[in-house]
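Batch 3, record 17
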Amino acid sequence: MADVIRNATPHDVTGLLGLTRELAEYEKLTHLFVATEDTLREALFGARPAVEALVAERDGKLVGYALYFHNFSTFLSRRGLYLEDLYVQPALRGSGLGTALLRRVAAIAVERQCGRFEWSVLDWNQNAIDFYTKMGATVLPDWRIVRITDAALNRLAGATS
Amino acid sequence: MADVIRNATPHDVTGLLGLTRELAEYEKLTHLFVATEDTLREALFGARPAVEALVAERDGKLVGYALYFHNFSTFLSRRGLYLEDLYVQPALRGSGLGTALLRRVAAIAVERQCGRFEWSVLDWNQNAIDFYTKMGATVLPDWRIVRITDAALNRLAGATS
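Prediction for the assembled complex:
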């Protein structure tokens, strides 16, 4: 089996969109999924790219991907790298493709002199936590993500004046 | 008292660095603090800005700031906005400056059509959690941040093998 990890190109958009939809199905979040080929192409390859992608191929077929962008640490005063998605098709899990994607993103973080490489995990996903911990990562115990969207975001924004 | 919330300019770098150091002291994280005027200027106003900033002035004096950057939601297929720091000098807390900064960042998120506006909170900071919840934000209960840095990051990247 020939495995290839490479940067995504505009030719991958159709296949990549299919994989992101598979991830939404796996996470039971298809009700939130509104991506299209056009929005994904614009996000990755438009005038102001919002995100970057690696794809994993096995025997010439797209079977996984990683999406990442830069965040920032004030105290380190430099960019970090944040992994938004890491996905490998279920039938191919455990075959090393996920690790290969993660290592490649880590290599990009090092190459770009990022102070840290971060991502998120569900607190009940002990297999993933064990895997990440074994590779030297730390699960921050006490930070929580706060999110505001839609009408509540508009209300917060609109009450400025 | 005249309060002003405005975009930071290169003239603010010295004052802004002082405020970021105050935040590091407040969080007892000065051992991680390596920012200098040069690195902060480059991050905010260099050829490839890594982060954006608002400052809060009271009676012409810099007393608070917000630092933010864009993240990305795959399922929404669009940028979000992430608030990295929100800081107001301790003596001025409760005077509305923090809320004014937060509202202004929310307005930027809406103006740029971001799908969501996010930040982080410590799980023991109940006052902050109550404040955010009251304004319509949600604290995601089950996501944890995973972080890898320094030697472990280099090892993952394969740089040492």
